[in-house]
């Protein structure tokens, strides 16, 4: 395992996908309205909120020093991708999910935690050791540590979490 792989594994342990974390805006590296904001999570790695999740009007962006709650979306080498849970840190039109509240409620009834589904691997992303799985008109990103599955592989997965804020289903390979 490389140092980058070790850092990615450590970030996953410290900040699991779907967890809510408190952080403080530490920098706006490209300036408001451009790329996003860095978030100090109290330990490495840094958090990052993409411009797509921030207010449309740059003066409405959270300022350096602003503290808030975030949902962990994803891990990248040296970075934890975050979604702001504080509505004042998000754009008015920010909608993370493709599902309405009613549609999400139906999905949570259909796929409660522990449910087994049959999914197909559609993409593999070696840079952050993830792959996407499609199943029953849904999809999920799945993290891996050792060997990535091949695109097209179909097999059993278990629903491990249903994320209310971002309307995401988390899966892991079923054993």
Written account of the structure:
With 175 residues, the chain is mainly beta. It has a five-stranded mixed beta barrel with strand order 1-2-3-5-4. Strands 8-7-6-9-10 form a five-stranded antiparallel sheet, with no helix packed on it. The protein folds into two domains: 3-89, Beta Barrel (OB fold (Dihydrolipoamide Acetyltransferase, E2P)); 101-173, Beta Barrel (OB fold (Dihydrolipoamide Acetyltransferase, E2P)), CATH 2.40.50. 13% of the residues lie in helices and 41% in strands. The protein has helices spanning 3-14, 101-110, and strands spanning 20-27, 36-40, 46-50, 67-76, 79-84, 116-125, 130-135, 138-143, 154-163, 168-173. It contains two helices and ten strands; from the N terminus they run H-E-E-E-E-E-H-E-E-E-E-E. The chain starts with a helix and ends with a strand. The model has no long low-confidence stretch (mean pLDDT 92). Strand 7 (130-135) and strand 8 (138-143) form a beta hairpin. The longest helix is centred in the first third of the chain and has 12 residues, at 3-14.
